[in-house]
Amino acid sequence: MHQRINQRHLILFVEIVRKGSLAKAADELAITQSAASKSLRQLEQDVGDRLLERNRAGVTLTPSGEIFYRYASASLTALRQGIEMLAQSDQHARRAVLLGALPNVAVTILPKAVARFKTRYPDIQVRILTLTNRQLLMQLRLGEIDFVVGRFAEIEEMRGLHFERLYYETMVLAARPGHPLLQAGNHFKLEDIVAYSLVMPPPGTVIRPEIDRFFLSRGIAELPNVIETLSAEFARAYTTVSDALWIFPRGVLQADLDAGVLKELPVDLAGTEGAVGITTRSEPGLSHVSEEMLRLVREMCLRRALSLS
To answer: Which CATH architecture has domain 94-166+274-308?
Structure first.
């Protein structure tokens, strides 16, 4: 690290990018906004270039800021990992495996992987974070989680990260048993769905563009009655007590379909396939227990791939 650059300034800079706001970062770090502004100005002076642009929406990285952020977050991650590795050398140290997962793999992959892990390591904590793919990747870059199990993100969001594809998964359009569209039989047409509420992931999620492209390719440019949520619990409950339709990855809905709680509409969702796999930081540094959890998750993903083939 350059001798003029203060580590606290790096932490502030990374937190500003993470929060998208200088004020929110200052609040998170328990400092005043004026102190945060002063520290940011000092960091930019030390670096010799402008790193952030402020606007009404918050802050955005400059081209120089994008480069600097990549290495600043990596350096803080490496520092945290070094401290953790030292702590783990103490047999009495408290250890944990930290991972992020999208809802589809949290339901289909993680339960069996975690069960096998806990059989071997009952004293190791397992913490699972479920957010949007973009939020999980940010947490991964910051070193706050060890790896992410989910879908492949846009190229610009994968800088400094490595993705290992393990299987492909499609979407499912489902409804409650007895839904009017299920009774239509051969008269069912995809455009008929616009007469009903559609529960779907919100914008900003990795799977929403796939859904939007699918409907656009089928001539449905506007969906007038949409409910946006990542909560599978709400979507399931709402779909079963109403005439709403629910489009989501098959991994989340499969158990409900098998149990007859929901029924799959006869819609060819070809083109909504997405690569599911494991995302890690490009630089090494996982603890041996995190490596073991990753190995078990990989094994469960490969079994899932075989069941889908």
So the answer is: 3-Layer(aba) Sandwich (3.40)
Encoded amino acid at 250, one letter: R
pLDDT tens digit sequence for 162-210: 999 988 888 999 999 999 999 887 788 999 999 999 999 998 888 888 8
What was the pLDDT predicted at 2? 53
What residue spans define the domains of the chain?
Answer: 7-75, 94-166+274-308, 171-264
User: How far apart, in whole angstroms, are the C-alpha atoms of residue 52 and residue 142?
Assistant: 18
Q: Give the contacts of 283 (CB within 8 A, at least 6 positions apart).
A: 74, 77, 78
Class of domain 171-264 as given by CATH: alpha beta
| CA dist., res. 70 & res. 174, Å (int) | 41
Q: Is 52 exposed, middle or buried (0-12, 13-18, 19+ CB in 10 A)?
A: buried
The pairing of strands 147-151 and 96-101 is parallel
Split at pLDDT 50, 70, 90, the class of 237 is very high
Nearest Cα residue to 137 out of 296, 251, 298, 280: 280
Is pTM beyond 0.70? Reply is no
Query: Which CATH number is associated with domain 7-75?
Result: 1.10.10.10
Residue 1 — pLDDT band, cuts 50, 70, 90? very low
Topology alike, domains 94-166+274-308 and 171-264? yes
- Gap between the Cα atoms of 139 and 14, Å rounded: 11
CA angle 275, 151, 215 (to 5 degrees): 75
223 by Cβ neighbours in 10 Å (0-12 / 13-18 / 19+) ranks as middle
